[in-house]
Amino acid sequence: MIAAAGCRMRIPTWGFFMILPHDPAAYPPPLHMTIPKDIAGLASEADTLERMRIVLQRVRGAQLSVVDDTETDDVTANDANNANDPNNDTGNHNATDTHEQMNTPAYDMSDPSGDGDSRRIGTGLLLLVGVQDSDGDAEVEWMAHKIAHMRIFEDAAGKMNRSVLEEHGSVLSVSQFTLYADTRKGNRPSFTKAGRPEHADTIWNAFNAELRAYGIPVAEGVFGAHMLVGLENDGPVTIILDSDNRPTG
Fold first, then answer.
1. N or C: less crowded end of the chain, CB within 10 Å?
2. 178 catalytic, yes or no?
3. Mean pLDDT of residues grouped by 10 in the chain (249 residues)?
């Protein structure tokens, strides 16, 4: 078949011929999609999202031992290293440091320092608590209430239907700025989203006090210290809580 001048042929997959005009004006204009602002802003909003974050683990027992209670500013030091490292490619250095740490003598979790500085609980919750600079009383109160009443312990029927209050359990609370690690660039995490140490310490202590107000025994780690944490995760059950999930209305 010979196409007429000014036309073109299209051969569909079903096998017969169609002659279509070559003039672009004969076709409908292309569709243009506009992304709604509330969706388009999600990525940038996620980068600036500030929240209190807690990793909760249901345990049959947990213990914490202080290796070195000298407070270190790992956040500042690590991010300073990132700033001085254009490629942020420190895999070899990290591997060496990790190798050296793995070959240090093992500590006795019951009392690694030999001075009786050990904290332990039985049935209850191990909480790794991260704080950002925007966190305040509202976040503390909501988090403490949620954790005190969350039904994650088994009842007589084996269902998750009992709270740590009903279980008469305890809490081991550990401040944990590494929950805010940003690993998008290079091999060395950045922790710039973690709260300033003085603010994070205040909020963490207020959170522990709020849990105690519910009648829950709370054992604490040492803010900024090098610690060893051991646990027997029951389940295992591990839940991540973010304060930005709290109702705002």
1. C
2. yes
3. 52 50 59 49 45 94 87 52 49 37 44 58 96 92 96 96 97 93 90 90 96 97 92 96 80
CA 168 from chain centre, in angstroms, equals 27
> How far, in Å, CA of 109 to CA of 118, rounded?
8
CA 99 to chain centre: 26
Please check whether residue 40 lies inside any domain of the structure.
no
Domain containing residue 234: CATH number: 3.50.80.10
Question: Would residue 10 count as lying in a domain?
Answer: no
Structural domain for 130, as ranges? 52-83+107-245
Altogether, the residues listed in the chain come to a count of: 249
The letter for the amino acid at 98 is T
Rounded to 10 deg, the angle between the 137-149 and 197-213 helix axes is: 40
* 202 is known as an active-site residue: no
What digits encode the pLDDT tens for the residues 228-244?
Answer: 999 999 999 999 999 88
pTM comes to 0.67
Q: Is 38 inside a domain boundary?
A: no
For the question of residue 176 being annotated catalytic, the response is yes
Q: Which of 178, 191, 202, 238 is catalytic?
A: 178
Give the residue among 8, 5, 4 at the shortest CA–CA distance from 21: 8
